[in-house]
Specification:
Layout lengths: L6 E6 L15 H17 L13 E11 L8 E11 L3 E10 L5 E12 L11 H10 L4 E2 L7
Parallel strand pairs: 3-6
Antiparallel strand pairs: 1-3, 2-5, 3-4, 4-5
């Protein structure tokens, strides 16, 4: 396991994810990060029993960032590491790292910001304390950057 990360998924670069040179397309990494975030959330126990869209909570992705360090190629087995690195009032941030499983070469790293949104007003709103507590339990090193005011 990569230092500082306790969650990992493994993916294999598929044919439809590469260009004519067999190199993984740069946009595919955003999809890898999204899949990793979903699995992370499942492992944390935050997916409702009835399903991900059935509890009325809305979370919007508002920022993605990818730094490309090396190329992944068709057939490469990748390890995608993820963690929630901080929690603010209405948003939280993910860090991601992509490593080639065989060579251990770091292929890419990235960040994402997710905002909790009121389902009626569609405006950002304060994250529930239960969410923060669940993250702190799963990811003890998370930075809590909340203040007392709403939003």
């Amino acid at each position: 396991m990569e230092k500082g990360y306790k969650h990992k998924i493994e993916l294999k670069v598929r044919f439809n994810e590469v260009d004519m040179l067999g190199v993984c397309n740069n946009a595919v990494y955003i999809t890898y990060f999204e899949e990793a975030r979903l699995e992370y959330t499942k492992e944390m126990g935050l997916i409702p029993e009835k399903g991900i869209f059935e509890d009325g909570n809305l979370y919007f992705m508002v920022h993605n960032e990818v730094n490309y360090r090396a190329h992944a190629h068709y057939g490469d087995e990748l390890e995608i590491y993820s963690k929630i690195s901080y929690i603010k009032n209405s948003s939280f941030g993910f860090d991601h790292l992509v490593v080639n499983k065989q060579s251990k070469e770091k292929i890419a790293d990235g960040k994402g910001v997710i905002v909790y949104v009121d389902p009626v007003t569609r405006k950002s709103t304060r994250l529930p304390e239960s969410f923060c507590e669940a993250v702190k339990h799963f990811e003890p090193s998370v930075q809590i950057l909340r203040n007392e005011r709403e939003g």
